[in-house]
Write a structure and sequence with these properties.
- The chain has a domain at 131-270: Butyryl-CoA Dehydrogenase, subunit A, domain 2 (Beta Barrel), CATH 2.40.110.
- It has 23 helices and eleven strands.
- It has helices at residues 8-11, 18-26, 29-43, 58-78, 83-93, 98-113, 116-127, 279-309, 328-363, 370-398, 410-417, 427-443, 461-466, 480-502, 508-514, 516-538, 548-566, 568-573, 579-596, 600-605, 611-614, 625-634, 647-663; strands spanning 133-136, 152-156, 161-165, 173-174, 185-194, 197-207, 220-224, 240-244, 247-250, 259-261, 267-269.
- Helix 2 (18-26) crosses helix 3 (29-43), helix 8 runs antiparallel to helix 9 and helix 10 packs across helix 16.
- 44% of the residues are buried.
- The structure holds ligand LJ27NJHV and flavin-adenine dinucleotide.
Length: 664
Amino acid sequence: MEGVDHLAFERNKAQFDVDAMKIVWAGSSHALEVSDRMSRLVASDPAFRKDNRAMLGRKELFKNTLRKAAYALKRIIELRLSEEEASMLRSFVDEPAFTDLHWGMFVPAIKGQGTEEQLKKWLPLAQKMQIIGCYAQTELGHGSNVQGLETTVTFDPKTDEFVIHSPTLTSSKWWPGGLGKISTHAVVYGRLITDGQDHGVHGFIVQLRSLDDHLPLPGITVGDIGMKFGNGAYNTMDNGVLRFDHVRIPRDQMLMRVSRVTREGKYVQSNVPRQLVYGTMVYVRQTIVSDASTALSRAVCIATRYSAVRRQFGATGGNPESQVIDYKTQQARLFPLLASAYAFRFVGEWLKWLYTDVMTRLQANDFSTLPEAHACTAGLKSLTTSATSDGIEECRKLCGGHGYLCSSGLPELFAVYVPTCTYEGDNIVLLLQVARHLMKTISQLGSGKKPVGTVAYMGRVEQLMESRSDVQKAEDWLNPSAVLGAFEARAARKSVACAKNLSKFSNPEEGFLELSNDLVEAARAHCQLIVVSKFIDKLQQDIPGKGVKQLLEVLCSIYALFHLHKHLGDFLSTGCITSKQGSLANDQLRSLYSQVRPNAIGLVDAFNYTDHYLSSILGRYDGNVYPKLYEEAWKDPLNDSVIPDGFQEYIRPMLKQQLRNARL
Ligand SMILES: CCCCCCCCCCCCCCCCCCCCCCCC(=O)SCCNC(=O)CCNC(=O)[C@H](O)C(C)(C)COP(=O)(O)OP(=O)(O)OC[C@H]1O[C@@H](n2cnc3c(N)ncnc32)[C@H](O)[C@@H]1OP(=O)(O)O
Ligand SMILES: Cc1cc2nc3c(=O)[nH]c(=O)nc-3n(C[C@H](O)[C@H](O)[C@H](O)COP(=O)(O)OP(=O)(O)OC[C@H]3O[C@@H](n4cnc5c(N)ncnc54)[C@H](O)[C@@H]3O)c2cc1C
């Protein structure tokens, strides 16, 4: 029935102030007001329609994305939107586009690695979109191993230019988003060579296409790399291939904040660490963590609303069948994902703070927190994107057969989201970076250097190696210090075990390769500890609103105890807890799920997503699922005619032939 709220009875069960929770989720009343206004602006404008993407061919799909990008910019200018508003608008348009790489990587690369003069020259052009840029680092042969890139950038002192060249097939740039068809410029990463000497990988601003006719400039071969996973999905993006044949650029187009080449061809390093060349990746990894909570919450919102609508089995005495959300198995799969969405939101907030703090320090030439920023962004990017990808797929299964329909919104969400496990650093490669940081921290413990930040607990390693959990009854697991103690002990013990094993190798690099699986597990344990501890920290803040803080405490306990249960082998084998304490944690989890149950719909309503943004019949706010699914089926192009194209041509003759054969 149109206009009826089929989930009203669920909404009435909520025991907390949903509007207050919306503010906590958004980050502030101001952020909620902006996101609410921007999401409604997009939802009410037919130009941003997106329900037909899965049906469109690549060319039409891509053309549509270009139209939306140009229209979005027009609206941003007409409405004089602030950067915050524009950024929200972009996320509600909800379509990967070349603009993501322009604003998300090209502009930050110039900001982070350019000198004052370079910022003055290039930023206004980029910010007014008079040029469009992308981030061309990855090559056909190397993505993870940035030091292995093959593109050469050789200084020619005769002309005061760099000559960029792709010496092999594998040195072709491969993957950069926005490169394939649209970018006029790129920040290109290649090996800097002066006077025959290789100085490793550096970034350069390179014009690729003419600003007059958009044709590739001489010496440049460029195009799209082809269709990717899923219909619609990431195919709105023109990931590209690019080859250089001795292309010349002026010397001042090398990004020279970290190091520079003089007119005479001398290579000069500044006091800034070499790793700042990787700074754009740190920035984007940080944004990816916040985006993980958005993607996961979206899937969870769909699965939760549908689980309240869907009924199977259990009709007794004239009562309706049971809502599937009441099955304990459904709760045990769904509610940890709901808790994870909130956990990732808060760790994302914290990471943004950490990143801003590092940037402020860098301005003052304080580079001391760079390793911590690298390890946290790498580790949390890895942890949250893997969990979110798996979580979206779990939400699809939680919706049964209907979850497999494109109109559930889940297949496309998964297809768009899953490459986050690979781009901006393969998730295993990034966890190995965290492991290096942990091993270095442990190796420095004896030197009197006190570990700080997220590895501060390593300073108490001796105590953590001995500690025993004092949990005696299930409710004891609600105590944040019991949870933190167990997670710290597990993380410390796994890292120390790796460090001990590593010390048995005469060649540490060999040892690192041999033990890499254990190191990844240690890094994961450390990252889970960060998420748990930042959730607990969040709960130390003043959180207004009836029942809001109490529910967040429930979600925090679910996040922690679910992982304790899932990784029980870790906690038991490192001796941090006993098997009895493990089963008490599981008892407590069941009780926590019961506390979430009446509040489940309220908790997903607090995300404040419009139906346009969710783009899911199963996740509709009003829960009016069946009539809309039925209506939607008839919109499929296959149903435009009763007899499909191809039937007369192929099937009719086949049927006739078979009938003839039968009569013979
Ligand atoms: C008109 C007005 C309009 C206004 C409109 C406004 C609109 C606003 C809209 C906003 C839109 C914003 C959109 C944002 C969305 C962005 C979407 C982006 C989509 C992303 C697409 C994907 C892009 C990519 O994938 S780019 C390519 C990414 N590639 C990788 O990640 C490669 C991974 N590999 C590596 O990072 C490295 O090679 C690594 C780290 C694995 C190994 O490197 P290396 O071999 O050099 O290092 P090591 O020897 O291991 O270590 C040396 C040393 O360095 C330290 N270190 C390594 N990395 C870093 C680092 N990044 N930072 C700091 N330190 C680092 C390492 O720890 C070692 O330290 P030691 O102390 O020496 O041990
Ligand atoms: C959708 C999408 C968009 C992208 N956009 C851009 C872009 O805009 N600009 C850009 O420059 N790049 C972009 N990329 C490239 C992306 O950054 C790389 O694909 C990514 O960094 C992974 O590198 P790779 O492909 O070389 O993977 P590989 O390193 O080849 O990974 C293959 C396998 O090897 C394993 N492996 C690799 N090294 C190690 C190791 N040391 N130890 C253990 N296991 C290892 C990995 O875990 C993985 O299982 C994009 C990629 C995708 C999919």
